[in-house]
Structures
1.
Amino acid sequence: MLLTVLALYLIGWSRQPDGVAFMKMYGIMWTACIFMIVRMMNQLCPRIWECVAILAVTVLLLRESLLGYAQALGFRTAGNLTYLCTGTFLNPGPYGGFLAVCCCILVGYAVLGEKGWIRYICLAAALFGLPLIPATMSRAGMLALACGLLCLAASSEKQAEWIRRHWLVLSCIGILLLGTGYLVKKGSADSRMLIARISARTILHEGLTGAGPGHFCGAYAEEQARFFSQKERPERLKQMADCPEYAFNEYLQTGVEAGPLAMVLTIVIILQAIFLLYRRHSFWTYGLVALSVFALFSYPFSQYQFIPLGGLLIGQAEGSAGKRTPILPFIATILLAGAVLGMTPEYRNRMLAEKSWKNNERWYSMEMYDQVAECYDGIVSLMDHNAEFLFQYGVALRNTGNYAKSDSVLHIGIGISSDPMFWNLLGRNKQETGNHEEAEELYHHAFQIAPNRLYPLFLLTRLYYERNDSAMFMETADKALHFRPKVESERTAALCREIESMIMNYTYERKQ
């Protein structure tokens, strides 16, 4: 079934063989390759492999934990400066989930494992990493940890009996904790529910083959624009609208990118793997339970740190210990490994291009757009997977007067990003080249994608002002001045002041 999911992704890649699809497929190919290797090792030398695998998880957890403590104590800089610690991740959410999955695996081995000295190492490593999970403030990570450890407790007859006797109290505690978690970040939780709703609509719209690997954001933006343009939506929904990079649900994101069949097969694969592991009383069960729960509320498989962990956990469920490895899986493993090795040079070149971009990004912050255009031009073919780069390059080309090339770059960005700023900038290009009708359509589309942002209304107001369309100008200006944006800032206040200035100038000109 995993190879079927891989085939569905490959079909999508063949339809849109661009940079973002390549980057997504590189991670998927690695996951499939690790899965096949783990499957073979389980059949060839199960006891040795079990020790190697559990020690590898221990090393991964200790590495992330040590880095997390160093960040929390101020010895290292976190990936996100607004949070205490993020490990090697850019955000604390996936970091908390990674720690939770590893801790569930290691606690599971400490309870069910055979080798005593490894059990003590696993328990010590898990206890070392556990305090960092609450520090990440990751609700999904804490829920994943709770689910994994609860399933582990239920595997013991004594503990299962205790859970059955106190199920009502435990259920009330669980509901209370879930309610508290919702209220602590109510705005974020509501926004994610809308993301799930739009993602489900996107799956229906994109059909059986999906939008293509890595194209979730572009497809999501188009569907959100349709959602808000079809009819008038409640103000509450408009304020919840966001422009996410991920679906915050791996199963829904799989459905958007590879189609509903791939989504269903992914769910079946994970449930089947959990069932097979649980039936064998394997400690890997609880790590996979934690990962499957975490994937409901986050984006683990969009993070490279989860690639070996996901392939390892699913691979542990496949194959019977001691049986001879069939020739077809062996051939499939060789082919997958060859494909990964064949893709690695391009991946490395793209990483080098990322490094070059970061080294030259200072020119963009200094608004030296001629220098930006010159530096970015040499790496654009290797950076078509990076929406931030494409936006900066589009801005630089626009400010150097190269509107046609700016449009082509922005159109690439529109396909891989949910940010309406691509549409706003494209509209500004059209406006400055005299195509006011198309600019108007682009500004309206940007506002439909994110109907809680003031900037598209400001651009429309300025367009009507320059076009001397008095009726539309006054109507849009009034709407913008009475508009309540999702985030009020000095920037939005400055836009309102500029609109007021345009109204005063327009009134003065009319009197003249």
2.
Amino acid sequence: MQNKMPIYYQCNMKKYEHVLVYIMCSILISVIAYLFYHLIPVSVVIGFLAGIYLEKMYAESTVKKRQKTLRLQFKDFLESMSVAVRAGNVEVQAVKSALKDLQLSYHSKADIVREVDNIIRQYEKGGVELKVLFEDFADRSDITDIKSFAAIYSVIEGKSDRFGDILMQTQEIIGDKIEIEQEIETTITSAKSETMVMLVMPIVIVVAMSGMGGGMMDALFTTPAGHLAATAALVIFGISYVLAIKNSDIEV
């Protein structure tokens, strides 16, 4: 089957977007490094090296964000399809009915709209079975819930008169998981905000003390011991940031 649809577990950013994000991250880290070192060459090197890792982190975050959005959209697709099946529509007609509902709720370029439209076109014009199309969608999404649905559908397609009940149960399970995730995210929102404030505070303190004058921070900027302390502070700052980002990524 020829397929030009997106692969959701891979980054879909354009090259210029990668470059732009890298430059912005590098400049930001260079500025922060300069506050600790007051040495432009060192700050630039640190900034452009750290920019490689930060750009990679950003690219990975766009993948997770897109998958999370697609997962929410897929829940709506199952809900619409379930209603259509309970109304007496067969599987193909239920998919078409769900597409109409999705087109009312989402933009025409939304991932779920494009995917369901592709499934219908491939089925009608390409003669591809629905179970194969759902499996292809599941493989490209790398989303557990979509993979589970595709596996269930491949087993029961045309073999069970309880398809509507199974569809509704699948949709409820996904909905419950999403609701739990949202409750957890709401619970840790304040903790995430406090963490970000604590990460910013060392920068604020260094800027404030540097602006006081009187040579208060000269030892940090001019002596080997000061540079060593600044390096240790930046390393701790960087590790703390990475841990804060990774630990705030909740999956159920």
